[in-house]
Description:
The protein has 2 helices and 2 strands. It has 65 residues and is mostly helical. The chain has one domain (2-63). It has a two-stranded antiparallel ribbon. The longest helix has 29 residues, at 8-36. The chain is elongated, with a radius of gyration of 13 Å.
Amino acid sequence: MVEKESSTIGFIANIIWIIFFGWELAVANLISALIFAVTIIGIPFAKQSLKLAYLSLMPFGKDIK
């Protein structure tokens, strides 16, 4: 994940996204990270779920490489 140049439109879009959709997706990814972290095999998946939680909270202005 690479951050692109931030703009005012991206900032406003992120705020609207957080209010309506982002917090639900972020909480779901955090819960799945906690469930994955219970076992040693699931720890890499938990790390990826934490990255997805951050990305799902504020997706505008980011690029996935």
